[in-house]
Design goal:
The chain has 414 residues and is mostly helical. Helix content is 52%, strand content 2%. The protein contains 18 helices and 3 strands. It has a 3-stranded antiparallel sheet. Helix 1 packs antiparallel against helix 8 and helix 7 crosses helix 8. The longest helix has 24 residues. The protein is globular. It binds acetyl coenzyme *A (ACO).
C-alpha cells in the first residue's frame, strides 16, 4: 500500500468549518455571543428560557400567542410516562445523575411514538419539545429518589426554571432563585459547534432520531473538558475551602502543571461573555443566600489566574463553567447536578442543531491519517509467543497489568 502524501491534520478539528448555521455565533476575539442575531447580553437581561427555545427552534422571536403556545406545549409534556418510573426505581445506588439522565432519556424514545406534526417541522420538533420538557423532571425525580424522598409532580403554572426548583425541593422557589436559574438556562442554550452539539449533529447526519442525537450529546457533555468542568470547578472551590487557602492552592497547582477548571476555551481568546454575566449573577445569588464563601474563593482564584503570565501568554480567560459553580451552589443545587443543569439548558440548542442538520443534511464523515505500520506479515497464533516475549514492555499478562488496558487475568464483573 502506498504511503499517503503528508496532510495538514487539524487536531481536534480546530478551526474546521464543516457546515453553516443560523443559530448562534461566537466572536472569540471580541468575546461576544449571539443567538439568531441577538446579543447574549440583551437576551440574558430580558428573555425567558421558553423564548430562547422558540428562538432556536423557529429561528425568530415568538409573538405573544406563539410563546404561550410553546410554553403550554412544554408544560403539558413535563410528566414522565408511568413505565419509566419502574426503570428509575431500579437504577443502582451508585448511578450518577448524568448516567441516570442518559439512561432515562434513551428509554423515553421507546415510549414516544405519538408525534407526527409534519407541518411543524416533522416529528423531530415535537420530540424535541417533549424531551426538553421532560429532562428537568428526570433530574429532579432522580435526585429525590436517591434521597429517599417521593418525586414531585411537575406544576403547570411555573416556568421551566421555577418548576425545576419546585420539583427538586417541593417548595415554591424564591423569585430571585427562579430568575437566576432561568438566566443561566438562557446563557447556556446554544454555543456554536461545541463538542456535544457537534456530536448531536454527527448522529443527526446519519438520519438518527432526536433521542439518539440527544443521548449522544449527553455522553459528550459529561467529560471534564466540556460540561463536566462545572462540577470540577466546584470541586476546586471545595478543595480550597477558604479564601486564605487560595494562594497556596494556586501555587501548588501551577508547580504541578495541573489544569484549572473553569478557565480556557477553544474559541474565546477574550473573556467568555457568559462568564461576565454569571460573575454578577453568582454574586447576587450568594448575597441572597447569605453565604458568600464560594463566590469569594472563586473571585480570589480568578484574580490569581488572570494576573499570572502563564494564562496571559496563552490568552486563557474565565469560561462559563467557572462562575456556574458558585451560582448553582448558592441556589442549593447539589454538585453532581451541575452537569445535568447544563443539559437542561443545552437541549434546546442540541435539538435546534439537529433540526438544522436535517434540513441540509450531508453525512458527516471526516478522515484520519493512518499512522500505524503497514505491510506486516501475518503470523499464526502458535508462532506469536516468541515475538511477544521479545517485547516485555508491551506484554499483557497478569504480572504486568500496568501496560494492559484491561488486565486479562481479571474478567470484568458486573
Ligand atoms: N489550565 C491550565 N492550562 C491550560 C488551561 C487551563 N484551564 N487551558 C489551557 N491550558 C494550556 C494548555 O496546557 C496548553 O499549554 P501548552 O501550550 O503549554 O501545552 C495551552 O493552554 C493550550 O491548551 P489546549 O488544551 O491545547 O487548548 P484547547 O483549545 O484545546 O483548550 C480547553 C480548550 C480544553 C477548554 C482547555 O482550556 C481546558 O482544558 N480548560 C479546562 C477545562 C474547562 O474549563 N473546560 C470547559 C470549557 S467551556 C465548555 O466546554 C462549556
Amino acid at each position: 500500500m502506498n504511503k499517503p502524501a503528508p496532510v495538514d491534520i487539524k487536531w481536534g478539528l480546530e478551526g474546521v468549518v464543516f457546515t453553516e448555521t443560523y443559530l448562534s455565533v461566537i466572536d472569540g476575539e471580541a468575546g461576544e455571543l449571539s443567538y439568531c442575531g441577538y446579543d447574549i447580553q440583551n437576551l440574558a437581561a430580558t428573555a425567558t428560557y421558553e423564548e430562547i427555545a422558540f428562538l432556536l427552534w423557529y429561528q425568530r422571536l415568538p409573538a405573544n400567542p406563539e410563546l404561550e403556545m410553546l410554553s403550554n406545549w412544554l408544560r403539558e409534556n413535563r410528566r414522565l410516562p408511568k413505565v419509566v418510573w419502574g426503570i428509575m426505581h431500579s437504577l443502582p445506588d451508585q448511578a450518577t445523575p448524568m448516567e441516570a439522565l442518559r439512561t432515562i432519556a434513551s428509554t423515553l424514545s421507546m415510549f414516544d411514538r405519538s408525534c407526527h406534526h409534519e407541518e411543524e417541522g416533522g416529528s423531530s420538533l415535537c420530540r424535541s419539545v417533549s424531551l426538553t420538557a421532560k429532562v428537568p423532571t428526570i433530574i429532579a425525580s432522580f435526585d429525590r429518589l436517591r434521597r429517599n424522598r417521593p418525586p414531585i409532580e411537575p406544576r403547570g403554572d411555573l416556568s421551566h426554571a421555577a418548576n425545576f426548583l419546585y420539583m427538586l425541593n417541593g417548595e415554591d422557589p424564591p423569585e430571585m432563585a427562579a430568575r437566576a436559574l432561568g438566566t443561566y438556562f438562557v446563557l447556556l442554550a446554544d454555543h456554536g459547534m461545541n463538542a456535544s452539539t457537534f456530536s448531536a449533529r454527527v448522529t443527526a447526519s446519519t438520519l438518527g432520531d432526536v433521542y439518539s442525537c440527544v443521548v449522544t450529546a449527553l455522553g459528550t457533555l459529561k467529560g471534564p473538558l466540556h460540561g463536566g468542568a462545572s462540577q470540577r470547578s466546584m470541586e476546586q472551590l471545595l478543595e480550597i475551602g477558604s479564601v486564605d487557602n487560595v494562594d497556596e492552592w494556586f501555587e501548588e497547582k501551577m508547580a504541578a502543571k495541573q489544569r484549572l477548571f473553569g478557565f480556557g476555551h477553544r474559541v474565546y481568546k477574550a473573556e467568555d461573555p457568559r462568564a461576565t454575566i454569571l460573575r454578577g449573577l453568582s454574586l447576587q445569588a450568594a448575597d441572597a443566600s447569605g453565604n458568600r464563601r464560594w463566590y469569594d474563593i472563586a473571585a480570589r482564584l480568578e484574580e490569581r489566574v488572570l494576573s499570572h503570565s502563564y494564562f496571559q501568554e496563552r490568552r486563557i480567560y474565565t469560561n462559563v463553567d467557572f462562575y456556574t459553580a458558585p451560582l448553582l451552589s448558592a441556589l442549593e443545587i447539589p454538585i453532581d447536578l451541575f452537569i445535568p443543569m447544563f443539559a437542561v439548558s443545552r437541549i434546546a440548542g442540541w435539538t435546534a442543531n439537529v433540526l438544522e442538520q436535517q434540513q441540509h443534511n450531508r453525512l458527516i464523515r471526516p478522515r484520519a491519517l493512518y499512522a500505524g505500520p503497514r505491510d506486516l506479515t501475518w503470523t499464526g497464533l502458535d508462532q506469536r509467543e516468541p515475538l511477544v516475549e521479545a517485547q516485555p514492555d508491551l506484554q499483557c499478562v497478569a504480572g504486568r497489568p500496568a501496560n494492559c488496558p484491561a488486565a486479562l487475568s481479571v474478567p470484568p464483573r458486573f
